[in-house]
Amino acid sequence: MDTFAGKSVLITGASEGIGRALALELAAPAVSLTLTARNAERLEDAASACRARGAAVETVVMDVAVRADCERAVQRALERFGALDVLVNNAGITMWARFEAVSDFSVYQRLLAVNYLGAVYMTAAALPHLKHARGLIVAVASIAGITGVPERTGYAASKHAMVGFFESLRIELDGSGVEVTVVAPDFVVSEIHRRATGPDGRPLGATPMQETRIMTAPECARLIARAMARRQRILITSRRGRFVRWARLIVPRVVDAAAARAIRERR
Ligand SMILES: NC(=O)c1ccc[n+]([C@@H]2O[C@H](COP(=O)([O-])OP(=O)(O)OC[C@H]3O[C@@H](n4cnc5c(N)ncnc54)[C@H](OP(=O)(O)O)[C@@H]3O)[C@@H](O)[C@H]2O)c1
Predict the structure, then answer these.
(1) pLDDT digit string (tens) for 118-149?
(2) φ and ψ at residue 96, rounded to 5 degrees
(3) Ligand 1, closest atom to CA 155?
(4) How far apart are CA 61 and CA 35, in angstroms?
(5) Binding-site residues, ligand 1, Cβ < 6 A
(6) Which of 25, 75, 139, 217 has the fewest C-beta atoms under 10 angstroms from its C-beta?
(7) Which amino acid residue places its CA nearest to atom 46 of ligand 1?
(8) Domains, the chain, ranges and CATH?
(9) How far is residue 109's CA from residue 160's CA, in Å, rounded to a whole number?
(10) What is residue 101's DSSP assignment?
(11) How far is the CA of 37 from the centre of ligand 1 (A)?
């Protein structure tokens, strides 16, 4: 996609999954990408693939839960490319455990620190520059940010926080030229499910999802890139997700049952 030619785009969590696929989707000659994640090797691999498509790429190894890292990432994008037009808050982690099975709540703190505060810190650092560019903020939330999902209490809370933050910020930014696109993906094939924290506080190690029955990361990235180009207010990537948004006002029990079924059937 060359809609972003001449633009400087920063993507957090760009080494794998949706973030990597989005970087590749946007990568083209004259597109400037700043890609961030914690694992340097995987990040460099994503960067090389984007360079092969003609994009100029800067990488920043960082943790979004650390405010100084977020400031450093934005600074690096500015030093290298002279501007920041788009910030994609994508880095995220998840959990897979019923609330009553959890005894160590540090995972709830980490979910908020990465999924919510990470996006807050990145946005705070980027906002003056995005205003200058009349740019765009993308918040990759989740359907779990617009309705409840079992076995995801801490994750859903972090994504609801994210959606609440960005929907409020959008109002504050009215007239500034900066727009906010909230993305609510349904299940996507990525590393997040394998890494999800289980009831014992450790990663599951293997994905429990039926991967052949859920969207691929490149498919999700194409939808996000299109929503970004349109500066769309919200993108919900599945029909059932779009249904949920309205149906929960009218038939909330049907929506709850659908969320329980999605987790039970792992798709
Ligand atoms: N996959 C789904 O089913 C799904 C559905 C709805 C929403 N989402 C959302 O989509 C976003 C991307 O998830 P994904 O599925 O693509 O996951 P993924 O494959 O696990 O990728 C997550 C990315 O975030 C990075 N990351 C994780 N923690 C980080 C931290 N503390 N600081 C900096 N980077 C960090 C990871 O790299 P490092 O580990 O190297 O840092 C990786 O690049 C998340 O916000 C997720 O909640 C995913």
Answers:
(1) 999 999 999 999 999 999 999 999 999 999 99
(2) -150, 85
(3) 47
(4) 9
(5) 12-19, 37-39, 42, 63-65, 90-94, 114, 140, 142, 185, 187-188, 190-192, 195
(6) 75
(7) 92
(8) 8-239 (3.40.50.720)
(9) 15
(10) G
(11) 9
